């Protein structure tokens, strides 16, 4: 798995930040998960080198850290955009034309699923059920949920994120 991850050529400041995140959380029960959550929040994903730093700092096998990082679908083993757009692909969303809404996101952003915009602002993904089946189709952008999203809603939704620096 580590061979598939991107290399991380971080600055000394970024590497120090990784060490600080580990240091701040190392004594927590089940520290690996909170550490990975914060790393993802700060760096938008993980590289093999990042996971190795965490492994060394915690004195745990890198396979344990990498296994945890690859198990959870909301973690990414490559760096992503500032805003992660997750389009639900469950059956109820599919029945409510989620595919057309997904196409609208692709057209407006100029990317396909799994890609990040050139400016590093958006990454488009599909995900399993978001638990909002009665309000399908559902989209989640970072922690903000949008329900009953139609293709014509996409530009307005994205405009909110394009204006934020």
Short description:
With 165 residues, this protein is an alpha+beta fold. It is built from 7 helices and 4 strands; from the N terminus they run H-H-H-H-E-H-H-E-E-E-H.
* Strand tally: 4
Largest sheet, strands/sense/barrel: 4 strands, mixed
CATH topology of the largest domain: Glutaredoxin
Helix content: 40-55%
Shape: elongated
When the domains are counted, the total is: 2
Strand and helix order: HHHHEHHEEEH
Q: Stretches where pLDDT falls below 50 for ≥5 residues? A: 1-7
Tell me the number of helical segments per DSSP (H or I, 4 or more residues long): 7
Summarize model confidence as the mean pLDDT: 88
- How far do the termini sit from each other? 34 Å
Beta-strand residue fraction = 5-15%
Read across the widest sheet, the strand sequence of neighbours is 2-1-3-4
Top-tier CATH class of the largest domain: Alpha Beta
Instruction: Give the C-alpha Rg.
Output: 17 Å
Q: Based on the structure given, which CATH architecture of the largest domain is correct?
A: 3-Layer(aba) Sandwich
CATH superfamily label of the largest domain: Glutaredoxin
The computed structural class is alpha+beta
Description of the structure:
- The chain has 165 residues and is an alpha+beta fold.
- The protein has a four-stranded mixed sheet with strand order 2-1-3-4, covered by helices on one side.
- The chain contains seven helices and four strands.
- Helix 1 (12-25) packs antiparallel against helix 2, helix 1 (12-25) crosses helix 3 and helix 3 crosses helix 4 (62-71).
- The protein is 44% helix and 11% strand.
- The protein has two domains: 2-71; 83-163, 3-Layer(aba) Sandwich (Glutaredoxin).
- It has helices at residues 12-25, 32-43, 48-58, 62-71, 91-95, 98-109, 154-162; strands at 83-88, 122-127, 139-141, 144-146.
- The chain is elongated, with a radius of gyration of 17 Å.
